[in-house]
Design brief:
Elements lengths: L1 H10 L9 E7 L40 H14 L5 E4 L12 H18 L4 E4 L21 H7 L9 H7 L5 E6 L2 E5 L21 H14 L3 E5 L18 H13 L4 E6 L6 E6 L5 E7 L19 E8 L5 E8 L2 H6 L17 E5 H4 L7 H10 L5 H10 L11 H12 L3 H12 L42 H24 L22
Parallel strand pairs: 1-2, 2-3, 5-6, 6-7, 7-9
Antiparallel strand pairs: 1-10, 4-5, 8-9, 10-11, 11-12
This protein binds 2-acetamido-2-deoxy-beta-D-glucopyranose (NAG) (3 copies) and zinc ion (ZN) (2 copies).
Length: 530
């Protein structure tokens, strides 16, 4: 009897009553370009030029940013599929990649999209945040002590005062970040992580730009005291880019300090949500013991814009709907919607595509996480185990790779080095650990060893395109390479010696070991700590 009771208590939290499942959208990297012209030149951001030729497309073009038709259609599909979500995360980069002429242009664009979203979801809690392209000039996110009026302008001329409560506005003015308790037990901590972005030159020499780290620490402490769970929402996530070797986003010291902070408060944080990469990926976040305690969800972009960085490519337009437990704040599932841009541009009204002519266009479900990855829910443990099954030729990994570009680059080859970069980026948000992972994996060749296998497609003429998230800041770290055989013998010999010593020492002392355990390099063949 007691046993039965225990069993029931044990399984009951796993039971999600209907009313317990809440939904929220994430819309990221809109990059709305009002100068997009259907009669423009796709090699010149689809802007109209004298030499314009061809038809860049009704819903957009892989070489360009989002036309209004695309913005309108994504809002239509959101309203059609879930018109009353609990809230909407709008995770930055609303402004196009092409450098704007003035701050006023930036503010006008942000205001336009704010109005469109507010009109479409008048009764929904909208959670806006800043992306690196929303600064002027892009990437240069200012310090408050410089006397900037940027953050005030975003509220007034950018119209975010319509979306933020008075006290949130007061907080936002102090650095572009704020928090919101969206329901009992759930606090959204909305960051301006662009301050830590390595292309932001305005923060050099500053240990805690706009005192955001100190504020974040206080938020996490407060949430813990109030027994709330936290969703961290930001434009840029820390860690490395899974599609380019050795490229990380934050300044190294900010990556470390930020990661230390979220590691320390791992028990309070239920999930992290970001955009910026334009790709579909995730990261495992671990506590001090190395147990995966939460996931960073990297949602792909609305804009299909193709990065000039070789091997990064384009993506289909996307928007994502999460299912979460209102009682535990755990993420249960998510539905990734996308627009097959090629197909959509064949319409509207083209019967071969089975189109209806509504402005919703061709939006369809790309995948549902639990089904695609064969997991019961999106628990950190399940995704940790999923990552363990990844292998160059595993079905799950191939699916992940298709989704990584929002089905733009389906069935693309991902050989050894591509695979290792993907895996190391997912496993290690810490840059040293990521570098070690890349380095050591390169020394253990696997059967499917291939060199870089992405098919570079025609690169656009980007002489006039402003740098993407990162063009110039391409940090090279250790690349995998093969060491001569004798090095292994030396390392092996030293290893044996160390093990023998360790055994001897542990026999002598009854002390606890573990403390100085070296970093484990063999994750790809052995089990990943869960
Ligand atoms: C929003 O709420 C108002 C007042 O409660 C209601 O009249 C209106 O129909 C709602 N709008 C939508 C789109 O649900
Ligand atoms: C998208 O549409 C194009 C054109 O119809 C088609 O060739 C392609 O296979 C489609 N992609 C996906 C992922 O369905
Ligand atoms: C699509 O447009 C055509 C012609 O404009 C119209 O006859 C048809 O009813 C429309 N279909 C839908 C699903 O709206
Ligand atoms: Zn972006
Ligand atoms: Zn960005």
């Amino acid at each position: 009897m007691l046993f039965l009771l225990c069993v029931m208590l044990w399984i009951s939290p796993g039971f999600a009553l209907d009313g317990d499942i809440g939904k929220f959208w994430q819309l990221s990297d809109v990059h709305f370009d009002p100068d997009y012209s259907q009669h423009g030149n796709s090699k010149k951001q689809c802007h109209f030029h004298n030499d314009s030729s061809g038809d860049p497309g009704y819903y957009g073009n892989y070489l360009c940013d989002s036309p209004y038709n695309l913005v309108e259609s994504v809002i239509e599909t959101m309203r059609h599929r879930e018109a009353e979500p609990d809230f909407i995360l709008w995770t930055g980069d609303t402004v196009p990649h092409v450098e704007q002429k003035s701050l006023d242009d930036v503010l006008r664009l942000i205001s336009n999209v704010t109005t469109v979203l507010k009109d479409a979801f008048p009764n929904t809690s909208l959670v806006p945040l800043l992306g690196n392209h929303d600064a002027f000039p892009s990437n240069q996110m200012p310090l408050v002590e410089s006397g900037t009026h940027y953050y005030d302008d975003i509220l007034t001329k950018g119209d975010w005062s319509q979306l933020l409560e008075k006290q949130e506005q007061a907080q936002f003015q102090k650095g572009g970040y704020y928090s919101r308790i969206v329901r009992q037990g759930l606090r959204l901590v909305v960051l301006n992580s662009n301050l830590w972005y390595s292309m932001n030159k305005k923060v050099t020499g500053n240990l805690d730009p706009n005192q955001q780290l100190a504020w974040l620490r206080q938020q996490l402490t407060d949430a813990n005291t109030a027994q709330q769970k936290v969703y961290i929402v930001a434009h840029i996530c820390p860690g490395a880019f899974e599609r380019l070797q050795g490229m990380s986003w934050f300044y190294p010291e900010f990556n470390k300090r930020y990661l230390d902070l979220i590691t320390e408060h791992a028990a309070t944080i239920a999930a992290h949500f970001c955009g910026h990469e334009h790709t579909d990926s995730f990261r495992l976040v671990k506590d001090k013991q190395g147990v995966t305690t939460s996931l960073m969800y990297l949602s792909p972009a609305l804009t299909p814009w193709k990065s000039p960085l070789q091997g990064v490519g384009a993506n289909n337009p996307s928007v994502r709907l999460y299912h979460y437990s209102r009682s535990t704040s755990n993420i249960m599932d998510y539905l990734q919607y996308y627009l097959n841009l090629t197909l959509a541009n064949e319409g509207p009204g083209n019967s071969s595509g089975g189109l209806d002519n509504s402005s919703e266009g061709e939006w369809q479900l790309e995948y549902q996480a639990t089904q695609a990855y064969a997991v019961t829910d999106c628990s950190p443990r399940n995704f940790n185990n999923l990552t363990r099954t990844f292998h160059t030729s595993s079905i799950q990994f191939k699916r992940y790779m298709d989704y990584n570009t929002v089905s733009y680059n389906n069935s693309a080859m991902c050989g050894h080095s591509c695979f290792i970069n993907q895996l190391c980026a997912i496993l290690y948000v810490d840059i040293n650990q990521y570098n070690n992972c890349m380095f050591w994996s390169g020394t253990t060749p696997q059967p499917h060893t291939r060199t870089q296998t992405y098919h570079p497609t025609n690169t656009p003429d980007h002489t006039t395109i402003s740098p993407p998230h990162t063009t110039t800041h391409h940090k090279k770290h250790h690349k995998p390479y093969h060491l001569p055989q004798y090095v292994f013998y030396i390392i092996g010999g030293m290893g044996v010696l160390i093990v023998a010593l360790a055994v001897a020492v542990s026999c002598l002392c009854v002390r606890k070991r573990r403390r100085g355990m070296p970093f484990k390099y063999s994750h790809f063949v052995g089990p990943i700590n869960s």
